[in-house]
């Protein structure tokens, strides 16, 4: 386990605040490849530091954010991205939750719709009314602890 | 020492009793044999006694630093402070599984004690299902993770507990979480019992809801505690990392939250029965999955799992048998349960269904995000990472509509409701939300529109959740006195709902503040230098070494001033634990109102300067206070006598009024 500590060192910080801001955001999307579920922004592993410096180097060289990510994916593979690309096998990953939402919504709609088509329960017959009144009267005579 | 052997023996005996509990009562329930069913209660109580004895024996071994036990040797140290010797019992795999079982049998015993009013067949079946889970986990412990294994010769000194775990957070976090995980087993056992009996009614929900609520309270507190612990202990100031281990505890929480809400519909309106049973099964399955994910080593790497597969395969088998078995039983028997009450789409039932749909989808995205990389790698060998950016992009949009819907829920009438009327009643909440967004935008100079909207959402939730009790008390007029009397006369469950939802609002506010408006400075200093952050001045006064009980540390001192006035001294440290050759960072945290100043040290630079990361996190404490508030709301609901565990059944008449 890597020693917990914060990652970005003062000597890494770029003089241009706008570029540094972009570097931080990009770093949070890149995996520290030797850690468990840490971004290079969070990790103080030496490899993470190398990657942070690399990201900043590319940004200073004028790369766009997408170009930096492409560069890193080409070098290290998809594994480096904490947010997998929206393509190929990953479609299943991205679409699972919306699928559950849509399916759940359809089922709920179906159930409610079926409910509405089902007739309301028939009104009580005269006999049942009388029985109910008798029970109610009975309940009123036997004192029970109130519910609240 | 003798007590260790007694503890070990007690555990084996408990397994024997668990087998008896698994078979006899349910058999009795099937054949209508009262004597067999009556076995359940005494056996459940005896199992609790035996497992408690076993746990006590292990604790004694830790307290006495008995390093002849492999488990104690690997996870303790004679110089460790006493509190961490005790919490170390569950700070490792074997001990934590024993704690898991202890809590499980405790819950079984509670059902045995308080279940007097349940129909005898239901109680017997529930206890048998609890017995299945108990037997499975006791077998797992005895066969693959026995904490009582000895080593000869006994070493003189232990290897110490992972320093990150030597914290009061560890003493509290896992027990809370486990009570939550395992508490869901009660809902599961009731669901299975309902499926076996082929019968389910409102009385069932009346029982399941308080137990689920209790489990949910502990899950909420456990997750919040874990989050705060990671925040202050790991030293980089994050409070949620979407780490698989965190997700493992979050999924049962989402499912339990959904279950809690659908059980309300079932109890009050006799509807959503089949769905509630499924949720109960899913919630416990996710608890088991959480245990599996954290305990099998599969998260570290698929390969670690493959190289030492005994434990992992065993838990996987438990998972397959229980999840697969219960889902199969569900598919077979659920169609026999009769659907209940009917309702229009716009109604409180409808709102609770909406809540369930969104929570399920949110749970699904956490589930898929956590497990997809494992599945993909074992199927295709392709390696991908799924981290915070993925979850932020998928989970958050799913939660926002659910959160917006919250204030509507308690205001909608059962069966059929008037949406326009409810919207009118929420005008104050809408105004508060708009005002909060506008003020936030103005104060922050129109940066961070999303964060400002999140602040608005928080106020919508806070004011919206108070709307129901306030308006209910205001009905009838008559000035402040009668209003207050009526307000405090409202049933506790009404406050429970309001506080639960209000807590959610506070948490959202904390998240918005801490992630939208945080300040950060990373720099290196020599004594006398000053760091400015968010209006505070931190002057570095130098650092001194200090010797702790089982560590050394370097303490850096900072004087904190604001507008020239001294406020406090902050002392972040870097520790080194020689037994494990491991450094840790102890952040210094200064709480100002709901906000916090967070200072941690980095590795010293080559030039001897001290590297510092200072952060200011506005409203951050509300993240956890909101969770505490949610749990408090849960406690209030639980204290409502209509819901209280083991409370006498309320009068019919009162039910009709409610």
Q: How many beta-strand segments of chain A?
A: 0
Shape of chain A: elongated
Return Rg of chain A in Å. Answer: 31 Å
Largest sheet of chain A: none
> How far apart are the termini of chain B?
59 Å
pLDDT average of chain A, as an integer? Answer: 79
Oligomer: heterodimer
Tally of extended strands of chain B? 10
Which regions of chain A are unreliable across 5 or more consecutive residues at pLDDT < 50?
141-148
> Residue-averaged pLDDT of chain B, rounded?
87
Structural class estimated from helices and strands of chain B: alpha+beta
Q: Which bin fits the share of residues in helices of chain B?
A: 55-70%
Please state the overall shape of chain B, judged from the principal axes of the Cα atoms. Answer: globular
Describe the structure.
The complex is a heterodimer of chains A (148) and B (658). Chain A is 56% helix and 0% strand. Chain A is an all-alpha fold. Residues 141-148 of chain A have low confidence and may be disordered. By secondary structure, chain B is α+β, with helices and mostly antiparallel strands. The longest helix of chain B is centred in the middle third of the chain and has 33 residues, at 348-380.
């Amino acid at each position: 386990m890597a020693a917990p500590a914060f990652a970005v060192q003062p000597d890494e910080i770029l003089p241009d605040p706008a570029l540094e801001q972009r570097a931080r955001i990009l770093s949070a999307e890149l995996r520290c490849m030797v850690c468990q579920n840490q971004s290079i922004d969070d990790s103080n592993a030496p490899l993470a530091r190398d990657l942070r410096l690399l990201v900043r180097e590319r940004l200073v060289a004028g790369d766009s954010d997408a170009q930096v990510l492409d560069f890193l994916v080409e070098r290290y593979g998809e594994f480096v991205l904490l947010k997998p690309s929206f393509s190929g096998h990953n479609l299943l990953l991205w679409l699972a939750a919306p699928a559950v939402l849509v399916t759940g919504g359809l089922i709920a709609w179906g159930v409610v719709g079926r409910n509405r088509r089902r007739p309301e329960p028939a009104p009580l017959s005269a006999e049942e009314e009388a029985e109910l009144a008798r029970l109610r009267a009975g309940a009123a005579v036997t004192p029970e602890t109130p519910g609240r | 020492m003798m007590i260790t052997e007694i503890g070990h023996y007690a555990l084996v005996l408990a397994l024997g009793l668990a087998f008896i509990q698994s078979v006899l009562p349910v058999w009795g329930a099937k054949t209508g044999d009262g004597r067999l069913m009556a076995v359940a209660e005494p056996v459940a109580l005896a199992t609790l006694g035996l497992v408690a004895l076993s746990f006590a024996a292990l604790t004694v071994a830790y307290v006495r630093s008995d390093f002849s036990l492999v488990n104690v040797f690997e996870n303790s140290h004679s110089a460790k402070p006493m509190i961490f010797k005790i919490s170390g019992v569950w700070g490792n795999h074997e001990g934590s599984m024993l704690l898991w079982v202890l809590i499980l049998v405790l819950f079984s015993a509670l059902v045995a004690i308080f279940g007097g009013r349940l129909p005898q067949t239901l109680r017997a079946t529930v206890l048998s299902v609890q017995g299945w889970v108990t037997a499975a986990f006791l077998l797992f412990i005895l066969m693959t993770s026995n904490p009582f294994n000895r080593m000869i010769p006994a070493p003189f000194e232990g290897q110490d507990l992972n320093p990150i775990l030597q914290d009061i957070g560890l003493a509290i976090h896992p027990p809370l979480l486990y009570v939550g995980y395992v508490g869901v087993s009660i809902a599961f056992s009731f669901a299975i019992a309902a499926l076996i009996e082929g019968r389910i009614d409102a009385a069932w929900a009346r029982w399941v809801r308080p137990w689920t609520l209790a489990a949910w309270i502990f899950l909420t507190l456990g997750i919040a505690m874990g989050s705060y612990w990671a925040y202050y202990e790991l030293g980089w100031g994050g409070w949620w990392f979407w780490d698989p281990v965190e997700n493992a505890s979050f999924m049962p929480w989402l499912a339990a939250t959904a279950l809690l809400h659908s059980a309300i519909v079932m109890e009050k309106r006799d509807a959503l029965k089949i769905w509630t049973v499924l949720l109960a099964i899913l919630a416990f399955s996710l608890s088991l999955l959480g245990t599996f994910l954290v305990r099998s080593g599969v998260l570290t790497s698929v390969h670690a799992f493959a190289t030492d597969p005994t434990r992992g395969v065993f838990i996987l088998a438990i998972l397959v048998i229980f999840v697969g078995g219960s889902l199969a039983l569900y598919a077979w028997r659920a169609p026999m349960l009769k659907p209940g009450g009917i309702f229009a789409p716009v109604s409180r039932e409808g709102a609770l269904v909406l809540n369930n749909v969104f929570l399920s989808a949110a749970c699904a995205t956490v589930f898929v995000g956590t497990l997809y990389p494992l599945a993909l790698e074992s199927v295709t060998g392709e390696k991908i990472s799924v981290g915070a950016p993925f979850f932020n992009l998928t989970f958050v949009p799913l939660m926002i509509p659910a959160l917006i819907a919250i204030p509507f829920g308690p205001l909608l009438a059962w069966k059929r409701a008037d949406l326009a009327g409810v919207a009118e009643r929420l005008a104050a909440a809408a105004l508060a939300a708009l005002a909060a967004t506008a003020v936030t935008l103005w104060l922050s100079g129109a940066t961070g529109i999303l964060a400002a909207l999140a602040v608005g959402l928080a106020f919508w939730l806070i004011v919206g959740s108070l709307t129901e009790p306030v308006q209910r008390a205001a009905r009838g007029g008559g000035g402040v006195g009668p209003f207050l009397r009526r307000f405090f006369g409202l049933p506790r469950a009404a406050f429970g709902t309001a506080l639960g939802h209000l807590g959610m609002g506070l948490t959202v506010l904390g998240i918005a503040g801490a992630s939208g408006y945080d300040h950060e400075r990373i720099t290196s200093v020599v004594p006398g230098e000053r760091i400015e952050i968010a209006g505070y001045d931190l002057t570095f006064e130098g650092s001194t070494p200090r010797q702790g009980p089982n560590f050394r540390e370097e303490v850096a001192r900072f004087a904190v001033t604001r507008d020239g006035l001294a406020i406090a001294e902050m002392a972040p440290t870097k520790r080194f634990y020689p037994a494990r050759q491991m450094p840790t960072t102890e952040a210094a945290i200064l709480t100002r109102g709901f906000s916090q100043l967070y200072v941690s040290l980095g590795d010293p630079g080559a030039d001897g300067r001290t590297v510092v990361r200072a952060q200011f996190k506005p409203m951050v404490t509300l993240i956890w206070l909101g969770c505490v508030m949610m749990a408090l709301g849960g406690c209030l609901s639980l204290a409502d006598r209509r819901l209280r565990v083991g409370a006498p059944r309320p009068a019919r008449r009162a039910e009709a009024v409610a």
